[in-house]
């Protein structure tokens, strides 16, 4: 009951604010120099995830700063509101509520882990706000209030496996992951996909290790022996952040080279490699929608700005940073198109918004709230960067629901025509399987 | 093969000399033309062609390609090698004036494999046995039947028995890849691989299950069975080694805690952060060495050990003097206060060094692995095991054989009596806590070699450390040693069957049950000290 009244009050507050903002925008442009549009940044600045998320907070500050130099949005300056959910999942929900209800932000850019996203979802639904989520994730989700600018599995995992099958002629697969929702779902999708491609069950080995696993001796030895079955073997790694460095160190120590058993990783980017000596990792792979080494004028300018902003001439860029770049610019365009920051109007204006990405293409927000992205496969070089060895011909549209899984292949997300995130094309009903 | 090559070479040279103006397309020309390309297939083809062309520069060009120092100009397809003094034309060795328009010839895994195979067949007759060995291994991996003549020629000249065996194994691998080779020779090759008896041999043998010749199939099936039995024994030994190595890491992380928690009874939640401080000290030492005196890099760890001890020990003494001494006898408050200290230290390091991992390099003596009877033992792990034992022995000596150790034991056993005997107990407390923290710092130096150097480093070890100390028996160093090794070995034997996650759960359940039965751990202290 208490919660009900809370939400009602919050809703009222939101309605008044939305109305007030809209009226303010209509009434007076003279006072607008004083008024600001607030943008929430919900990334962990302490705790385990700070290693990845602090960078995203910085990139958002840079983007907002830049937009303000261009005159802001709708004639108003943008104001960043930074909170620290401290890698604590319930705290993410509390801080999201604080941003939306107390600070009255117009949109929130944030979250990294899937569990943090799941934790804030109810808050965004209840208070009707907008979240831009910049990290590659397991898919199987499409929410009206969330815009997914990271890769869905069909924009990262599946193309990577295709590449290994075609270019490296891999026939035997080790799916190695950290034990949580993203690796488990991704591996389920990959397993179904590989079997559909005719890979035998005995040629697939799936393993999970706990978060922060640091002793990889047994696992690496097991991979080595799994790889000695006379067929070309590869490892598809969904190992999360911190556990990667010891994993790669152990690979190097036990002498597994990329030419023998290549490892393709979905969570290892330029930032993660900054902590390791990459010479023994030469040739191991990563699949992303962006690499710092992609040579385009936009990317060069972005890297230069980033280094200037962080005052560090060696600072690297990575994929989720580009996702925020795309998401933020899409949001700016949608707000300008809608002429207001009212969440309902901005949510309606976002699908169809186009934004040049940093690798030479133009990404588009789709009706399922995912975006189109190119897919790159990069090999690790000695200097901690990636050499792009393959890329998709065009941009790949993100699938909210995987076509490989029985539970989701009939589902469709379309917030424009169907106004539904899980429309079942068989039963013709909104509401899942 | 070699004679053939020389002949070809001579012919090519003659042709080149005779037809200088017209310069017919020799195999080497075609190979060089293919290398100057953006397509991986072309580059791969170029490498194979170059290896067969007998061009005298082939070795140098391949080496440059492998090192990423082979460049080409897309406009006129000039190939160049990036040397210390600038660019030189790859074919002629002539110096090139400018580097304009040159970009590196791209290398991916496929190309890298081709380079390895090509270098293998080129280096089979190299003067150094190490190079010949590497070449034989490369041919073994490539299983290229085309390398057979070269292998035979090299085998005839080979004198080093180790290299000779490697070459025979390579020859066997190549023979088995060639299905039209004489059956008797291929059956012999199966026997050679059975003798090698490792995972790579097994991979080749397993690939023969669909072979056309029944003799080879049967031989392979027998060889597989024999190699598998051998590997199963080796796998158990290997597991034991992994267990000892994990145990030594646990020992290192826990032994400082065995002092602060075990001997002094302080529940020190900031123990992990002392480990982290040690690791960051190592990072700083390496940074200074990299910038000032790169030649000393191999000495970075021995230099870092005393520094890490001083840094972590100093911080430990500060914590004891500043906070813990006010809280003796109040374990709950101590727990909360030290937990707060751990968060403060983490965030301080995060603000100072940034949230991302810092790179701590491995000195040359810690890289790589050594093969002992089929066991692969990595040098880094071996050093850590030895180091953990040395720290254990050293700490025991300090406690048992020095006057400081005597005072520490006296104070922990009967504080008032010790004070009455003239021991300044507050300072003994401070230095004992400092000693425990300093040991944790030393552990950080070792852990920086195998784990992330990040602000979270300590967190991942704190629970395991408490587990080891409690399991081993509070206040007993020997208990800590036995507990660490037991947990390490048990973990590693459970992991292959139960998986890493379930294995850890099973161990925790076991320890909970064990503590129910024996609340004081494996080696409980007896006598009056227990009641104190």
Structural features:
heterodimer, A: 433 residues, alpha/beta, Rossmann fold, seven-stranded mixed beta sheet, five-stranded parallel beta sheet, 12 helices, 19 strands, disordered N terminus, B: 532 residues, mainly alpha, four-stranded antiparallel beta sheet, two-stranded antiparallel ribbon, elongated, ABC_urea-bd_UrtA (chain A), signal (chain A), Peripla_BP_I (chain A)
What does the model show?
- The complex is a heterodimer of chains A (433) and B (532).
- The longest helix of chain A is centred in the first third of the chain and has 26 residues, at 2-27.
- Chain A is an alpha/beta fold and 433 residues long.
- In chain A, a hairpin with a 5-residue loop joins strand 11 (354-356) and strand 12.
- Chain A has helices at 2-27, 50-69, 89-102, 114-126, 157-167, 181-196, 217-226, 244-253, 270-273, 297-310, 319-338, 343-349, and strands spanning 36-42, 77-83, 107-110, 131-133, 146-148, 172-178, 204-209, 233-238, 263-265, 285-288, 354-356, 362-364, 372-373, 376-380, 386-391, 396-397, 411-414, 420-424, 429-430.
- With 532 residues, chain B is mainly alpha-helical.
- Chain B folds into 3 domains: 2-112, no CATH class; 124-212; 234-472, no CATH class.
- In chain B, 45% of the residues are buried.
- The model of chain B is unreliable at 14-23 (pLDDT under 50).
- The interface between A and B is large, with 56 and 63 residues.
- Chain A: This is Aliphatic amidase expression-regulating protein.
- Chain A: InterPro entries: ABC_urea-bd_UrtA (IPR017777), Peripla_BP_I (IPR028082).
- Chain A: Pfam families: Peripla_BP_5.
- Chain A: Residues 1-33 form the signal peptide.
């Amino acid at each position: 009951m208490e919660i009900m009244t809370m939400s009602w009050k919050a809703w009222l507050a939101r309605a008044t604010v939305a109305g007030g903002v809209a009226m303010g925008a209509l009434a007076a442009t003279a006072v607008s120099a004083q008024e600001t549009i607030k943008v929430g940044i919900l990334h962990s600045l302490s705790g385990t995830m700070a290693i990845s998320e602090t960078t995203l907070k910085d990139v958002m500050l840079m983007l907002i700063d830049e937009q303000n130099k261009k005159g802001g949005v709708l004639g108003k300056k943008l104001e960043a509101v930074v909170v620290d959910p401290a890698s604590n999942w319930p705290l993410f929900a509390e801080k999201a509520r604080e941003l939306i209800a107390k600070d009255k932000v117009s949109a929130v850019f944030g979250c990294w882990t899937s569990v943090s996203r799941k934790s804030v979802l109810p808050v965004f639904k209840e208070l009707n706000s907008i979240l831009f989520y910049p990290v590659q994730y397991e898919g199987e989700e499409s929410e009206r209030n969330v815009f997914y600018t990271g890769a869905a599995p069909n924009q990262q995992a599946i193309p990577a496996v295709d590449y290994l099958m075609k270019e490296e002629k891999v026939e035997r697969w080790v799916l190695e992951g950290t034990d949580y929702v993203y690796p488990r779902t991704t591996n389920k999708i990959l397993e179904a996909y590989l079997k559909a491609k005719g890979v035998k069950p005995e040629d697939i080995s799936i393993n999970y290790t706990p978060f922060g696993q640091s002793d990889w001796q047994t696992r690496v030895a097991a991979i080595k022996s799994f790889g000695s079955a006379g067929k070309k073997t590869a490892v598809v790694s969904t190992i999360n952040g911190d556990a990667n460095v010891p994993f790669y160190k152990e690979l190097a120590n036990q002498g597994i080279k990329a030419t023998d058993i290549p490892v393709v990783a979905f969570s290892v980017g330029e930032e993660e490699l900054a902590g390791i000596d990459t010479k023994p990792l030469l040739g191991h792979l990563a699949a992303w929608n962006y690499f710092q080494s992609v040579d385009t004028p936009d990317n060069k300018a972005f890297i230069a700005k980033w280094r200037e902003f962080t005052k560090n001439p060696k600072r690297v860029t990575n994929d989720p940073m580009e996702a925020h770049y795309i998401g933020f610019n899409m949001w700016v365009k949608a707000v300008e198109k809608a002429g207001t920051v009212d969440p309902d109007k901005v949510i309606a204006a976002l699908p169809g918004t186009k934004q040049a990405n940093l690798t030479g293409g133009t990404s588009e927000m789709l009706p399922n709230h995912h975006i189109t992205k190119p897919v790159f496969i990069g090999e690790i070089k000695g200097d901690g960067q990636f050499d792009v060895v393959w890329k998709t011909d065009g941009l790949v549209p993100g699938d909210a629901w995987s076509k490989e899984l029985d539970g989701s292949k009939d589902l469709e997300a379309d917030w424009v025509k169907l106004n539904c995130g899980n429309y079942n094309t068989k039963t013709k009903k909104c509401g899942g399987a | 093969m070699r004679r053939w090559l020389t002949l070809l070479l001579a012919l090519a040279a003659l042709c080149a000399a005779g037809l200088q103006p017209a310069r017919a397309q020799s195999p080497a020309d075609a190979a060089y033309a293919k290398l100057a390309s953006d397509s991986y297939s072309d580059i791969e083809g170029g490498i194979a062609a170059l290896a067969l062309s007998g061009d005298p520069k082939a070795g140098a060009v391949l080496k440059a390609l492998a090192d990423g120092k082979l460049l080409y100009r897309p406009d006129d397809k000039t190939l160049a090698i990036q040397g210390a003094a600038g660019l030189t034309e790859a074919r002629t060795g002539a110096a090139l004036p400018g580097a304009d328009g040159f970009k590196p010839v791209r290398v991916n895994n496929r190309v890298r494999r081709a380079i390895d195979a090509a270098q293998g067949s080129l280096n089979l007759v190299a003067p150094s046995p190490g190079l010949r060995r590497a070449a034989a291994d490369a041919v073994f991996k490539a299983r290229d039947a085309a390398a057979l003549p070269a292998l035979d020629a090299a085998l005839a000249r080979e004198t080093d028995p180790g290299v000779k065996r490697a070459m025979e194994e390579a020859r066997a691998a190549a023979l088995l890849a060639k299905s039209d080779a004489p059956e008797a020779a291929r059956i012999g090759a199966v026997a050679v691989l059975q003798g090698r008896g490792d995972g790579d041999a097994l991979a080749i043998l397993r690939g023969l299950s669909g072979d056309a010749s029944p003799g080879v199939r049967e031989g392979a099936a027998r060889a597989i069975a024999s190699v598998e039995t051998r590997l199963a024994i080796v796998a158990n030994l290997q597991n034991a080694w992994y267990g000892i190595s994990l145990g030594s890491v646990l020992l290192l992380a826990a032994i400082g805690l065995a002092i602060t928690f075990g001997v002094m009874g302080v529940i020190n939640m900031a123990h992990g952060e002392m480990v982290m401080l040690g690791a960051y000290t190592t990072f700083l030492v390496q940074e200074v060495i990299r910038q000032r005196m790169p030649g000393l890099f191999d000495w970075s760890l021995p230099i870092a050990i005393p520094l890490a001890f001083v840094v972590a020990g100093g911080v430990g003494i500060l914590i004891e003097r500043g906070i813990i001494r006010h809280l003796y006898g109040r374990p709950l408050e101590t727990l909360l206060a030290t937990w707060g200290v751990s968060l403060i230290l983490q965030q301080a390091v995060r603000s100072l060094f940034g949230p991302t991992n810092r790179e701590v390099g491995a000195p040359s003596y810690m890289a790589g692995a050594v093969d002992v009877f089929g066991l692969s033992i990595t040098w880094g792990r071996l050093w850590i095991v030895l180091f953990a034992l040395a720290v254990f022995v050293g700490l025991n000596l300090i406690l048992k054989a020095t006057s400081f150790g005597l005072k520490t034991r006296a104070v922990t056993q009967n504080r008032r009596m010790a004070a009455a005997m003239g021991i300044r107990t507050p300072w003994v407390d401070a230095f004992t806590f400092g000693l425990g923290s300093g040991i944790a710092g030393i552990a950080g130096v070792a852990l920086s070699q195998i784990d992330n150097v990040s602000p979270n480093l300590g967190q991942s070890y704190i629970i395991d450390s408490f587990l080891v100390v409690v399991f081993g028996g509070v206040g007993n160093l020997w208990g800590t040693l036995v507990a660490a090794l037991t947990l390490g070995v048990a973990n590693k034997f459970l992991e292959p069957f139960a998986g890493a996650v379930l294995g850890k759960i099973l161990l925790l359940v076991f320890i909970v049950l064990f503590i129910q039965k024996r609340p004081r751990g494996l080696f409980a202290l007896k006598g009056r000290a227990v009641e104190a």
